Amino acid sequence: MVDPGLVVVDKSPGMTSHDVVARVRRLAGTRKVGHAGTLDPMATGVLVLGVDRATRLLGHLMLTEKAYDATIRLGAVTTTDDAEGEVVSTHDVGGVREDDVRTELARFVGDIEQVPTAVSAIKVDGQRAYARVRAGEQVELKARPVTIHELVVHEVDLPEVRISVRCSSGTYIRAIARDLGAALGVGGHLSALRRTAVGSFDLSVARTLDELADDFAVVPIADAARSTFPFIDLADEQAADVRFGRPLDLELPGAGPHAVFAPDGEFLALYEQSGAKAKPVAVFV
Predict the structure, then answer these.
(1) Residues of the chain with pLDDT > 70: what percent?
(2) Domain of 240: which CATH number?
(3) Do 146 and 264 sit in the same domain of this protein?
(4) How far is CA 210 from CA 19, 25, 39, 55, in A?
(5) pLDDT tens figures, 194-247
(6) Is 141 buried (19+), middle (13-18) or exposed (0-12) by CB count in 10 A?
(7) What is the domain-level CATH number for residue 155?
(8) Which of 168, 185, 270, 274 could bridge to 281 as Cys pair (CB 3.0-4.6 Å)?
């Protein structure tokens, strides 16, 4: 059994996120493994997993921003908004100009309302949307607020468009492909997707499953917390209060969860400001 921490996987195409979790469970020698946000089987790249008590960090990691490299193929609409779905209509892209593509993509940057793709993991009346679609139902999802921090157009070589996106959690890159195609009147879908970062964890620290099988590497939970959240080093008396889940007479330097550490460097908890005191969000000891 390995120590608790995070495992940063460079996922191969064709695998589900559950497939990766199952493999890491075997490598780590524990069933207590979870992931911080799914990647579709078609997609590759960064998938962050938690081992043992570090799984409790994952819900907070899922709220961090993510980055992707993507290829959009214009001129074809699919049932899933990506290359894995059936083509339902095709259109000539001969009248589309590069300037039009760039102009429309620029409209996605900022705080926007995005309708998630119908084959998403969002629950509709207790059932995943993708399960309802596969059962033949027509699923209509409501638009949700997301933030596109940055969208860089690398190449427009019609019918393909290569982009990089840095965005908030909950953003669907497939939906950007779909909406770009709709805006241009020719349809579109995602033909390739690679997640390059989840929060502070990027491809530079990600390892393939084959590499992990040879040398199983875990980011220790304390290192993961320091690299992901703003952090505070506490005095002994404060650390003792944290171990009992008590509020702290402390003004945190910003909003959101902060990692708090004992004087010896042990990661203790996530705390958040609530009025005049800092209160525990999750205690790990």
Answers:
(1) 91
(2) 2.30.130.10
(3) no
(4) 14, 14, 18, 22
(5) 999 998 899 999 999 999 999 998 999 999 999 889 999 999 999 999 999 999
(6) middle
(7) 3.30.2350.10
(8) 270
Tokens standing for 7?
């495992």
- Catalytic residue flag (residue 40): yes
Asked if residue 138 and residue 154 are part of one domain, the reply reads: yes
Distance, CA of 127 to CA of 261 (rounded, Å): 40
Q: Is 222 helix (H, G, I), strand (E, B) or coil?
A: helix
Q: Do 80 and 25 share a structural domain?
A: no
Name the pLDDT band for 151 (thresholds 50, 70, 90). Answer: very high
User: How many angstroms separate the Cα of 69 from the Cα of each of 31, 135, 173, 203?
Assistant: 32, 31, 10, 12
Catalytic residue among 3, 10, 19, 40: 40
Residue 268 and residue 171 in one domain: no
Condensed to tens digits (0 to 9), the pLDDT of residues 22-79 reads 999 999 999 999 998 888 899 999 999 999 989 988 888 776 799 999 999 999 999 8
Taking the CA atoms of 244, 249, 252 and 256 in sequence, report the sign of the dihedral they define: positive
169 and 94 within one domain: yes
Per-residue DSSP letter, 40: -
Q: What is the CA radius of gyration of the chain?
A: 21
- By DSSP bridging, strand 201-202 and strand 188-198 are antiparallel
The answer to whether residues 53 and 166 belong to one domain is no
Q: Which domain holds residue 116?
A: 66-195
Residues 18 and 48 in one domain: yes
Dihedral class, residue 45 (left if φ above 0, else alpha if ψ from -120 to 50, else beta): left
What's the pTM?
0.88
Same structural domain, 52 and 75: no
For the stretch 82-133, pLDDT in tens is: 998 889 999 999 999 999 999 999 999 999 999 888 665 555 555 655 555 5
